[in-house]
Amino acid sequence: MRSKKLIDLLVLPLFGIGLSLLIWHLISGATVSRVLPDGTTEEIKTGLVKDLPGPLMTWEKTRKYVVEPFAKREDLDQGILRFTWYSLVIVAKGYLIALLLGTPIGFLLGLSPLFTKLFDPIIQILRPVSPLAWMPLGVVLFAGTGKAANELGALFTIAICAMWPTVLNTAVGVRAIPQDYLNVARVLKLSRTQTLFKILVPATLPYMFTGYRLSLGIAWLVIVAVEMLTGRIGIGNFLWNEYNNGLYTSIILSILTIGVVGFLLDRAMSLLERRFKTA
Amino acid sequence: MSDHVELSNLTKTYTTPKGPVVIVKDFNLRIADGEFVTLIGHSGCGKSTVLSMLAGLNPITSGGIVLGSRELTGPGPDRGVVFQSPNLLPWFTALENVQLGVDQVFYTASREERRQIAEYYLTVVGLGDCLHKRPTELSQGMRQRVGIARAFALSPKMLLLDEPFGMLDSLTRFELQGVLMELWTRNHITALMVTHDVDEALYLSDRIVMMTNGPEAFVGEIMTVPWSRPRDRKSIMEHPDYYRMREELIEFLNVRAYTLKGQEPHGSHAAPPSAPAKAMSPVPSPANSSRAPDLASVA
Ligand SMILES: Nc1ncnc2c1ncn2[C@@H]1O[C@H](COP(=O)(O)OP(=O)(O)O)[C@@H](O)[C@H]1O
Ligand SMILES: [Mg+2]
């Protein structure tokens, strides 16, 4: 029984990763030099996807970012986790704003049919707008703040893109509260604040956390776009610079890092979420 | 603490997609101070509707309810309600569930006193060891015990119970009937309980109110249960009148619940709705075999 679990949770995923690396290796391209008859050398590209660096080459070229993950050599030459950390900090701030805005809006939507009729259409219209579209507006809105405009515009973009899952899930959760629980509040004549904190919030918590988890995923998606546009230092900005420098191995390292960090954030949130599922 | 209750010409109309339906019409009942009354009737006749109007959770269409000397206007902690499913809040422990109401009603008491009140009632219902368990860790029967403790802990003027033991197995049901009687004997709170179990009604009630079928259901007959308290289940079941009174209730449900409404009784009613929990009393003595008008009077 235990060994089956070990196989399912560790051995098989590791095998899958190994298999993917192998496929990556097989399809990736390489540049080889060839000595021509006239004595000069010629560089030619080989492989199925000629411009895709393979895993070994990626490791070789990017190891300095990985083995010293927190190093700071220059502004644009830092360890990969240091870049990631810069991004996480601003994501955390924007995400916090998203939750602080999204949760009460969700409660209002769930509790008040009038509020829903008034604002639901607007929410449905704003929700699918891409971060790339919000970003310029954000920067313009905070242009008056001078140097902070980029930073505030980034926060604005992360917050407004990430808050929708929180808004919608909270609203669904509030609407799903069993009438029985509300009857308890009515029979006991609980005050509004008591009803909110003793009944409504605990009953909605599982839904709220589902929203929080999805919002965090979006906040992390948005950061890359935001950093590309603003030039704010971070993992997304690193990726963009290295693209401009033609260093494709760094792009791959960034993608892997963004993916792993996103995965870990999601795991952490679902652990939290599960704690509240009992309710 | 407790008070008498008067329901006069209580009427409830629901608006349905097919138009308004009068579920309960001119329901009249007076419950004396400290009396335990059960309400029986066919499923769907409107028992819960009457109870929820008393609880203030369901608006009254016409007629009125007076509790003590006050006309009822909405829900309030002066009426303890026990629902079929105990409706405990799953994020609170047993103690917190009971204390939520206690804090509300006895807000002048100290925190410690309020906790003691909640603990006391949980201990009386036999949950002294489970104060800090959450509802998910309790069996169905234990949860209903918490529900009962929660209702009594408010020291309400009146107790409303809607088939509180309907979802329990018969052994647990007997136990909880005992718990309910124990608490009620200590407090003698005016109580109205909906049940579909005639044995339960006979064991618990001072009077049994039989509702006719719906729509426009009303009080068909009322049976007075004369036995002194505290009652012993075994001895009342062996009482010479028990079998006859039980038959009387079943006969009402099978025949007069329909005929009083001018409806045809359903086919033959060979099988009573619930089998007696114990072997029926021996052959009824001739003196008891006829209907006793003093016990069942038409309202
Ligand atoms: N909110 C409602 N709207 C419309 N009809 C209802 C509503 N609640 C109950 N009813 C109807 O009223 C009748 C009585 O219901 P109820 O009081 O729950 O019966 P009982 O408790 O005696 O089984 C049923 O026919 C039910 O379908
Ligand atoms: Mg009912």
Secondary structure layout plus pairing:
The complex is a heterodimer of chains A (279) and B (299).
Chain A: H1 2-27, E1 28-35, E2 41-46, E3 49-53, H2 55-67, E4 72-74, E5 77-78, H3 80-111, H4 113-126, H5 131-141, H6 149-175, H7 179-187, H8 192-230, H9 235-244, H10 248-277
Chain B: E1 5-16, E2 19-31, E3 36-40, H1 47-55, E4 62-67, E5 70-71, E6 79-82, H2 94-105, H3 111-124, H4 140-153, E7 158-162, H5 170-187, E8 190-194, H6 198-204, E9 207-211, E10 219-224, H7 233-237, H8 242-259, H9 286-289, E11 296-298
Parallel strand pairs in B: 3-8, 3-9, 6-7, 7-8
Antiparallel strand pairs in B: 1-2, 1-4, 4-5, 9-10, 10-11
Adenosine-5'-diphosphate binds at residues 14, 16, 23, 41, 43-49, 214 of chain B.
Characteristic key phrases:
heterodimer; A: 279 residues; mainly alpha; MetI-like fold; 2 domains; 3-stranded mixed beta sheet; 10 helices; 9% strand; B: 299 residues; alpha/beta; Rossmann fold; 22% strand; disordered C terminus; binds adenosine-5'-diphosphate; binds magnesium ion
CATH class of chain B, please? Alpha Beta
- Radius of gyration of chain B, whole Å: 20 Å
Distance between the termini of chain B: 28 Å
What structural class should be given to the helix and strand makeup of chain B?
alpha/beta
Task: Kindly state the percentage of residues in helix of chain B.
Answer: 25-40%
Overall geometry of chain A comes to: elongated
Q: Major sheet of chain A: order of its strands? A: 2-1-3
Mean pLDDT of chain A: 90
| Number of strand segments of chain B | 11
Q: What is the number of strand segments of chain A?
A: 5
Considering the protein shown, what is the CATH homologous superfamily of chain B? P-loop containing nucleotide triphosphate hydrolases
Ranges of chain B where pLDDT stays below 50 over 5 or more residues in a row are 268-272, 275-299
- Outline the biggest β-sheet of chain B: 7 strands, mixed
Q: Could you spell the SSE succession of chain A in H and E letters?
A: HEEEHEEHHHHHHHH
